[in-house]
Design a protein that fits this description.
Blueprint lengths: L14 H25 L8 H23 L3
Helix pairs in contact: 1-2
Length: 73
Protein backbone atom coordinates (compact mmCIF):
# COMPACT_ATOMS: atom_id res chain seq x y z
CA UNK A 1 0.00 0.00 0.00
CA UNK A 2 1.38 3.37 -0.98
CA UNK A 3 0.95 6.60 0.91
CA UNK A 4 -1.59 7.88 -1.63
CA UNK A 5 -3.83 4.85 -1.01
CA UNK A 6 -4.62 6.25 2.44
CA UNK A 7 -6.66 9.06 0.86
CA UNK A 8 -8.89 6.81 -1.25
CA UNK A 9 -12.49 6.19 -0.22
CA UNK A 10 -11.88 2.45 0.30
CA UNK A 11 -9.14 1.95 2.86
CA UNK A 12 -8.69 0.61 6.35
CA UNK A 13 -7.40 3.91 7.79
CA UNK A 14 -9.48 6.74 9.21
CA UNK A 15 -7.81 9.95 8.04
CA UNK A 16 -9.59 12.07 10.63
CA UNK A 17 -8.14 9.99 13.45
CA UNK A 18 -4.64 10.22 11.95
CA UNK A 19 -4.86 14.03 11.70
CA UNK A 20 -6.26 14.27 15.23
CA UNK A 21 -3.50 12.06 16.63
CA UNK A 22 -0.77 14.08 14.89
CA UNK A 23 -2.27 17.31 16.20
CA UNK A 24 -2.40 15.85 19.71
CA UNK A 25 1.27 14.83 19.44
CA UNK A 26 2.21 18.40 18.47
CA UNK A 27 0.31 19.73 21.51
CA UNK A 28 2.08 17.25 23.79
CA UNK A 29 5.47 18.27 22.37
CA UNK A 30 4.56 21.94 23.05
CA UNK A 31 3.71 21.03 26.65
CA UNK A 32 6.92 19.05 27.23
CA UNK A 33 9.11 21.76 25.72
CA UNK A 34 7.30 24.38 27.83
CA UNK A 35 7.93 22.38 31.01
CA UNK A 36 11.59 21.78 30.18
CA UNK A 37 12.24 25.44 29.34
CA UNK A 38 10.44 26.44 32.55
CA UNK A 39 12.69 24.18 34.58
CA UNK A 40 15.73 25.72 32.88
CA UNK A 41 14.49 29.18 33.81
CA UNK A 42 13.46 30.36 30.35
CA UNK A 43 10.01 31.27 29.16
CA UNK A 44 8.68 29.61 26.01
CA UNK A 45 6.40 31.99 24.17
CA UNK A 46 3.73 30.07 22.27
CA UNK A 47 1.28 32.06 20.18
CA UNK A 48 -2.17 31.41 21.63
CA UNK A 49 -3.77 31.38 18.18
CA UNK A 50 -1.51 28.57 16.98
CA UNK A 51 -2.11 26.47 20.10
CA UNK A 52 -5.88 27.01 19.91
CA UNK A 53 -5.81 25.99 16.24
CA UNK A 54 -4.17 22.68 17.12
CA UNK A 55 -6.72 22.25 19.93
CA UNK A 56 -9.65 22.78 17.56
CA UNK A 57 -8.17 20.41 14.96
CA UNK A 58 -7.72 17.71 17.62
CA UNK A 59 -11.21 18.09 19.07
CA UNK A 60 -12.81 18.35 15.63
CA UNK A 61 -11.01 15.34 14.19
CA UNK A 62 -11.72 13.04 17.11
CA UNK A 63 -15.29 14.35 17.40
CA UNK A 64 -16.11 13.71 13.75
CA UNK A 65 -14.43 10.30 13.82
CA UNK A 66 -16.37 9.39 16.98
CA UNK A 67 -19.67 10.45 15.48
CA UNK A 68 -18.98 8.42 12.35
CA UNK A 69 -18.20 5.38 14.46
CA UNK A 70 -21.43 5.50 16.47
CA UNK A 71 -23.74 6.84 13.75
CA UNK A 72 -23.34 4.14 11.15
CA UNK A 73 -25.03 4.64 7.79
Amino acid sequence: MSLLDIFKDNNKYNEKTIVGALSLVVMIVFAIVDIVTGILGNQLVINETIYNSFLLVTIGSFGIAGLEKFAKK
